[in-house]
Amino acid sequence: MSIFHLIYLVTIILAVLGGLFGIFAGLALLGGRASARTLSLVAAFLSLCDIPLGTTLGIYTLVIFLP
Q1: Contact in structure between 43 and 25 (CB atoms under 8 Å)
Q2: For residue 3, is it within any domain?
Q3: Chain segment 9-40, per-residue pLDDT in tens
Q4: Residue 5 lies in a domain
Q5: Nearest CA to 41 among 16, 12, 66?
Q6: Cα(45)–Cα(43) distance, rounded to whole angstroms?
């Protein structure tokens, strides 16, 4: 059961980090900052494991923002 709790904790941390990077990326995109692309890529990468909406939006964001 302790392994389940560890995996659950890691999943929660991953979701919180993805949300925070998503909010920061959105604010940076609205502000026209240079760091918006990097923050968007990090948020997209972190959201790839959230099925189905996170995967869809993460792949779309990666396709748009990668060179």
Answers
A1: yes
A2: no
A3: 999 999 899 999 999 999 999 999 989 999 99
A4: no
A5: 66
A6: 5
